[in-house]
Amino acid sequence: MSRKYIILIGIILFTSNGFSQWSKQGLHHLRVHEMKEQQDTIYACTSDGIFARHFLKQDDPWEAVGLQGNDVTDVFFGDDGRMLANVRTREPFYSSVYIKDTDTFELLAEHETVYAGSHHFRMLTATQSLDTIFDLSASKKTYDGGETWHGMFEAWVIYRFIRTDPDHPNKIWVGGESTNLTPILYFSEDYGENFENLPLHGNYFNGDNCTHWIIRKDTSWYVPGEGVIGRSDDGGYTWETLLNTWGDPDMALYFYDISFSPADSSIIYTTGDSPNTNISERLNIIYSTDEGKNWQHEWHQFEEDHNYPVRKMLVMHDDGRDIIFLGADGIYAFEHSVVNTPDHPDASFTWDIYPNPASGKICIHMQNPPVGQLIISIHDLHGRKVRQEKFQRISSDNYEHVMHTGSLNPGAYMISISHKNNRQTRKLIIQ
Questions:
Q1: Who has greater pLDDT, 119 or 332?
Q2: On the chain, which terminus has fewer CB atoms closer than 10 Å, C or N?
Q3: What does the pLDDT read at residue 221?
Q4: 126 CB contacts (<8 Å, ≥6 apart)?
Q5: Coil, helix or strand for 105?
Q6: Residue 80 — φ and ψ, nearest 5°?
Q7: Which residues contact 307 (CB under 8 A, 6 or more apart)?
Q8: In which element (H, E) is residue 150 found?
């Protein structure tokens, strides 16, 4: 059965314009700790190694791609097709970093963990070159590809995540909770050489004691915690509460993950788990279509299942719909239609991309473009902006604009042209 809630955080009531559909996606005999996307393929880190499958091919079997027999907690994609993976063991508690240069994973480093907590947190990050690597569960870092490792923090804390800004690899966040159960957020702007402990004000967390992840849109940071989601527009010094669910027991999740829609970054999805069995026995997704002003709750139970310890979320987009994959004991999916910003009222404005698929550059041919500022944006399937160009049109004559795409990794992207409050979006493939 399914159920839907509307939550008013602002003064404007949001009414859903889409549809939803829930499905099982396989691997239900395994615990799924993390999911990552690369070239339209989902890589699932599980209690029995890494598995992969095209995100749209639900009927295809999951392919074992490495480290089977191991508890793999995270995977990271570097340049030239190389990969890192994090493996955790219990009793003894060790964190191992593996690297894959060709066909197989090889052990790069093995560390004793400083925090032997739950597996469903992100402990691995790196630069694309794989020279700088952080193994947060062992509080270790290397700047020479694993030849030498150094300690990160002297104080023992309960870590929940480490994240490198994909657009600015010198910027790194670390979050979790301190020994006195207060939330922490560290931030570095020098590749993790030094971290600043940012203030998390009580009026934001309102009794919450942990941070679980962070996403960024321009200068705004969005941080989920236990029952609370907040935003900072000034680099983490002041915070605004976007969502507080403790007043509604049906929604009081520990928010373990948060993501923008790949097609529209004003749409935000979040999910998680709860010690309340009434909540943990169903799949939960809470989302906003207006940058966090108002929120909607969707949940579902499959008759043959009993609990869903949701740990991770991966949002991908195809043909006007977001597909939200949830990692629990196995993988589930929620399909949500995305109502894109309407086209410009001048219906004669059309545009095409060629070549598509592309490699080094694309040409965007516009017929009757609107007069004024046009913004061309390219986002990956996680909603991260990877390229944007702005220019002024002083006439509506046909126009051709060239964008260089040689620095983009192969895979699927969304490209949009915006004018004032209107936008048109296409799919772009980079070979």
A1: 332
A2: N
A3: 96
A4: 76, 78, 84, 132, 133, 134, 164
A5: strand
A6: 60, 30
A7: 277, 280, 281, 329
A8: strand 150-151
Tokens of 26: 């396989």
Long-range contacts of 324-327 (CB under 8 A, 24+ apart): 324/269, 324/271, 324/285, 325/25, 325/35, 325/42, 325/55, 326/271, 326/283, 326/285, 327/32, 327/33, 327/34, 327/35, 327/44
Average pLDDT over residues 16-35: 80
Residue 9 has pLDDT above 90, yes or no: no
Bond into 357 cis (ω within 30): yes
Give burial (CB, 10 Å; 0-12/13-18/19+) of 318. Answer: middle
pLDDT for 426: 85
Do residues 186 and 198 touch, judged by C-beta distance below 8 A? Answer: yes
Q: State how far the Cα of 55 lies from the Cα of 52, in Å rounded to an integer.
A: 9
Burial class (CB in 10 A: 0-12, 13-18, 19+), 90: exposed
Residue among 226, 224, 299, 257 at smallest CA distance from 34 = 257
The answer to whether residues 184 and 401 touch, using CB atoms and an 8 Å cutoff, is no
CA distances from 290 to 15, 144, 285, 294 (A): 11, 43, 16, 7
Average pLDDT, the chain: 86
Q: And the tokens for 369?
A: 């473009």
Is 271:257 a contact under the CB 8 Å cutoff?
Answer: yes
- From the list 229, 34, 259, the residue with the least C-alpha distance to 124 is 34
**What percentage of the chain reaches a pLDDT higher than 70?**
90
Q: From residue 396, how far is each of 2, 349, 415 by CA, in Å?
A: 48, 9, 21
| Residue whose entry in the numeric block shows the structure tokens 């499905």 | 23
Asked whether the beta carbons of 387 and 408 are under 8 A apart, the reply is yes
CA distance 415 to 401: 13
285 and 300 in contact (C-beta within 8 Å)?
A: no
Do the Cβ atoms of 349 and 366 come closer than 8 Å? Answer: yes
174 is written with which tokens? 């670390």
Q: How far apart are CA 247 and CA 324, in angstroms?
A: 26
For the whole model, what pTM was predicted?
A: 0.79
Beta bridge partners of 175: 161, 185
Distance CA 422, CA 111 (A): 51
Q: What would the two tokens of residue 268 be?
A: 């935000």
